């Protein structure tokens, strides 16, 4: 079995934004010789998340509204009492972003079959920025058998 790693960089914008990272994952798979196995997609930040769902504009807006209802930015959160914490000067007030991230997931594992992601027809891998704008990274790890190996 072989394992190949890659970091994908994502520039995000203000507030909640959702990025379809399926093309980057497909490019990574096609650029190596592992044809059957799986890809781990891992979000490396506490105010970002991942999900597999439909990449449809109106649904993505519904998801943003849903997340904002779960953890409204205007609520009072202890994490936001920066004067009571030992934090850097540029520490953001972002408890709501941490709470939203907890409602999603930090990783997805997707099968690779014959060199292709085994996603369903309408499925995409979505990266959620919950506290932008920031430079973010997603860790990809493919594991499996290389072509030509039995």
What is this structure's SSE topology?
Blueprint: E1 2-11, E2 15-20, H1 22-30, E3 34-43, E4 48-53, H2 57-70, H3 95-103, E5 107-113, E6 116-117, E7 124-132, E8 135-146
Antiparallel strand pairs: 1-8, 2-7, 3-5, 3-8, 4-7, 5-6
Describe, in plain words, how this protein is organized in 3D.
Helices cover 21% and strands 41% of the residues. It has 150 residues and is an alpha+beta fold. The longest helix has 14 residues, at 57-70. It is elongated. A hairpin with a 2-residue loop joins strand 5 and strand 6 (116-117). It has a five-stranded antiparallel beta sheet, covered by helices on one side. The protein has three helices and eight strands. The model has no long low-confidence stretch (mean pLDDT 96).
Mean of residue pLDDT values: 96
State the helix count.
Answer: 3
Whole-angstrom Rg: 18 Å
Helical content (DSSP H or I, runs of 4+):
10-25%
Quaternary status: single chain
What tags apply to this protein structure?
3 helices; alpha+beta; 41% strand; 150 residues
Concise description?
With 150 residues, the protein is an alpha+beta fold.
């Amino acid at each position: 079995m072989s394992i190949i790693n890659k970091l994908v960089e994502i520039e995000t914008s203000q507030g909640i934004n959702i990025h379809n990272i399926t093309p980057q994952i497909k490019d990574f798979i096609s650029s190596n010789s592992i044809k059957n196995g799986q890809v781990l997609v891992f979000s490396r930040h506490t105010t970002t998340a991942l999900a597999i769902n439909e990449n449809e504009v109106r649904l993505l807006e519904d998801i943003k509204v849903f997340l904002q209802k779960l953890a409204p930015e205007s609520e009072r959160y202890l994490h936001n009492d920066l004067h009571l914490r030992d934090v850097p000067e540029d520490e953001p007030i972002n408890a709501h972003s941490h709470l939203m991230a907890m409602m999603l997931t930090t990783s997805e594992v997707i099968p690779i079959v014959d060199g292709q992601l085994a996603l369903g027809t309408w499925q995409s891998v979505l990266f959620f920025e919950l506290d932008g704008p920031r430079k973010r990274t997603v860790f990809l790890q493919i594991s499996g058998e290389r072509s030509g190996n039995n």
